[in-house]
Sequence to fold (261 residues):
Amino acid sequence: MAEPASPRDWAIALHGRSVLKQRKLDELVRSLGPTHGLRCLDLGSDNGVVSLLLREHGGSWASGDLTEEAVSSIRSLVGNDVQLVRGDGLPFEDAAFDRVAVVDMLEHVPDEGAFARELGRVTKPGGRLVVNTPHLKHTLLRRARHALGQTDEKHGHLRPGYTPERLRELLAPAFELESHRSYSRFFSEAVDTALNWGMARLGKSSSAKGMVVTGDDLARHRKAFRMYALIYPLVWAVSRLDALVPASGYMLIATLRRREG
Fold:
């Protein structure tokens, strides 16, 4: 991994070594559709690289997240129009956005019902909401993660995940569920488990938004990240084995339409 020279460089460098983040961005872009000329909002986009790369697909964007660490990291990449979300309220005007992307945030908010109503308030009638969240599954791998200390509480999750049916129920009547799919099957999830274990061994702590890896972490652990860059081709190859797994994925992405009126 070359030595990053700017916040954007380190963000792109980390993104390029994360199979899960790359797949997540692809799924979000596909679900959001074209955003040129639209006013858009992303909520919960981790260290900001998703916010940065979504902007590169067009449109005028705002961002929000739940912790000062995450907000600061996002601002370092995209500049202005990044807000701290306190509690379940959103600091944006009514019907402000044509597209809203909730990226690994719904499971973190204290009152999911109040947050769902806020999403309905800020989305324009006819607008599109995309929700990316853990897929509620009870598997041996999930139990193994918990045994390693990677519990929902450790990740800041107040709920373990969602099913499509639960999202439909939660976001009604303001939104209509149009489509959903899952991704990140066993091998990708196993890779993510190993990476989280490694970051914890380096002393990275979790927050209300889970484990957010920033440029400061990259600077502190240059040697570890260089070593990881060397084995990344193997990591990528292992994640490709997901194609052999018939079961549904560990991440769920849903597309919903804001009802008129």
